[in-house]
Write a structure and sequence with these properties.
Length: 576
């Protein structure tokens, strides 16, 4: 660990903190239909979109209508993306002449991108055509992020309203998020990425002749990289244009782009906490939620940085020890341009959010470093979280926290003027329990099956177990990062990981909307001396405790069989 590494972390934290309020205010204005500086340009376009699509912008939906709209557009979009992959060899925009994608892989990829997971069991530059990348995958990067943001704001709106049967209009919320937030930010961000050296073209791949061996050739992949790169980070999607993702110099060429990408991953999740406080009339509550997220983030980064700053016990070379001016540590699997500190920071940022982009191989992290990024996923990525999904996941944890606080004092719990009753807690638990159920059941099935599970492993012992556990946790958390020692591009892994992504995304999302519908109908009650305040440091500590306890009680046995056992074996000198 070095002072320079901590300085880089401090700079990132200051930039993030400075963005929370302006981003949160802008989101509130956009999704409440207030005037913004883009209105003169975009308002006519917005009205035209509603007219062409037959959307009645003034029609409000109840939670069931909202859920039907989310599920309907997701199903249609998934079928379209599946079709792009299966037919890409006969469609335009394929200068490389790439073959049609296999049925199981096309299913996995379509499920992955509609759920904001972007799990990639393939090498993008050798599998997906330009048309598939842009019209299928990048399109979903916009849509899946916008849908999750819309659901989060619908839940906030429900908390704010009283005696209401509606929670907003899904088509309006999604259109405004796309038009006023994601598209303008992506255009500006893509231009910045191009200025830093990220390619953006539709040319065929370049054939180069190395000077040392002029008789041989090398194929250099390129294409519409910047346009996909920007939304993969801003929308917390994570799917790269290249197999190396953000470790590839065409995706992440400079220290500035590295910092910019990490900021984009956190910007929406952090800003929406202020949107929560502003729209509900309790800015202090928004800051309390952000404080819980940020505290967990700091602890996670510090632990991974500490673990990776030490040499790996099975690797002994000078690159691990470094010098006073160039501290190294465990450099296996890390991009030398970024080193340990930026690799540890990126790994935490991408697993705290539902992004999954990487600038280092998580499979090469130390046992404890790998355990932390796995725990980040197991917390259901409420630490900043995905664009929208992180906030509604955190609100679920907030409601559980105030419910527990209410039980402690023997009174009906309240949250921002709404009584939390049995139906609300049931919806919260439905949203939470589907996550560990999918992870633990499928992990156990694949670990116990030599044919469909263990045959894909390159590593035996606890590390191999962790690779399978990480795969299903990443899929269920809609993250998409992986321990690359597992070959998941097989029929069984493709099908079941795709099923895991869809189940955990939508079986968690529908109870959230049901909760929103119930909260919107409740009458608002004034605070009383027995009301537990949700804008204090005490509440933040309670919230952190609930998040950790839920994760620890559920997943500690699995962690003890994977990274914890691996660490103990390394300490004892046992090779495996």
């Amino acid at each position: 660990m070095s002072a320079n590494g901590w300085l880089q972390f401090a700079i990132f934290s200051v930039i993030l903190l400075a963005s929370v309020r302006p981003v949160g205010i802008y989101f509130a204005r956009v999704l409440e239909g207030e005037r913004t500086w883009l209105d003169p340009i975009l308002r006519p376009i917005e009205r035209l979109i509603y007219k062409l699509c037959g959307v009645k912008a003034d029609h409000e939906m109840n939670w069931r209508e909202y859920a039907y709209a989310v599920l309907g557009i997701s199903a249609v979009s998934m079928v379209v993306t599946y079709g792009f992959q299966r037919l890409q060899n006969w469609l335009p925009g394929n200068p490389q002449g790439l073959a049609n994608v296999r049925p199981d892989l096309a299913w996995n990829t379509a499920a992955s991108f509609i759920t904001n997971t972007n799990w990639q069991s393939y090498s993008p530059e050798t599998t997906m055509s330009y048309l598939t990348q842009m019209a299928g995958l990048a399109y979903h990067n916009f849509l899946s992020a916008a849908m999750a943001i819309a659901v989060a704001v619908a839940l906030i709106r429900a908390i704010k309203r009283t005696s209401s049967k509606t929670i907003g209009n899904f088509w309006v919320d999604t259109t405004r998020t796309l038009l006023y937030v994601l598209l303008p930010a992506s255009i500006i961000g893509a231009l910045l990425m191009v200025a830093q050296g990220v390619p953006q073209n539709l040319h065929a791949y370049t054939t180069a002749h190395p000077l040392e061996q002029s008789s041989q050739t090398q194929t250099i992949a390129q294409g519409p990289v910047a346009s996909q790169e920007i939304i993969k980070e801003l929308g917390t999607n994570g799917g790269g244009f290249f197999n190396a993702n953000s470790a590839h110099p065409f995706e992440n060429p400079t220290p500035l782009t590295n910092l910019f990408q990490m900021f984009l991953i956190f910007s929406i999740g952090a800003g929406l906490t202020y949107t929560l406080g502003r729209m509900t009339g309790s800015p202090g509550h928004g800051w309390a939620v952000f404080a819980a997220m940020f505290a967990l983030f700091v602890v996670g980064f510090a632990t991974v940085y500490w673990a990776e700053a030490h040499p790996h016990l099975l690797i002994h070379n000078a690159a691990q020890t470094g010098t006073l001016t160039a501290p190294a540590g465990n450099m296996e699997g890390k991009e030398v341009r970024f080193g340990v500190s930026q690799s540890a920071l990126f790994a935490n940022v991408t697993t705290d959010a539902s992004c999954g982009a990487i600038n280092t191989q998580h499979d090469s992290l130390t046992a404890l470093g790998g355990m932390v990024v796995l725990i980040n996923l197991m917390l259901n990525e409420v630490v900043m979280g995905g664009a929208g999904s992180g906030l509604y996941g955190m609100i679920i944890m907030v409601i559980l926290s105030v419910f527990i606080a209410g039980l402690m004092v023997g009174r009906t719990p309240e949250y921002l003027g709404k009584k939390i009753e049995s139906y609300d807690v049931k919806m919260c638990m439905l949203s939470i329990l589907i996550f560990p159920l999918i992870i633990l059941v499928f992990t156990s099935i694949f670990v116990l099956s030599p044919t469909i599970g263990l045959s894909s492993l390159n590593n035996p012992g606890p590390h191999g177990f962790t690779e399978i556990l990480y795969a299903f946790t990443s899929a269920a958390a809609n993250n998409g990062s992986a321990f690359a020692g597992l070959n998941a591009n097989t029929w069984w892994y493709d099908v079941m990981l795709g099923f895991s992504m869809l189940t955990c995304r939508f079986f968690a999302l529908v109870p959230v909307l049901a909760l929103a519908g119930n909260l919107a109908q409740k009458k608002s009650i004034p605070p009383s001396p027995g009301t537990f305040p949700v804008n204090t440091a005490l509440f933040t500590m309670l919230l952190i405790g609930v998040i950790l306890i839920v994760g620890a009680l559920t997943f500690f046995p699995a962690l003890s069989l994977g990274p914890i056992l691996e660490h103990l074996q390394l300490q004892s000198g046992q090779l495996f």
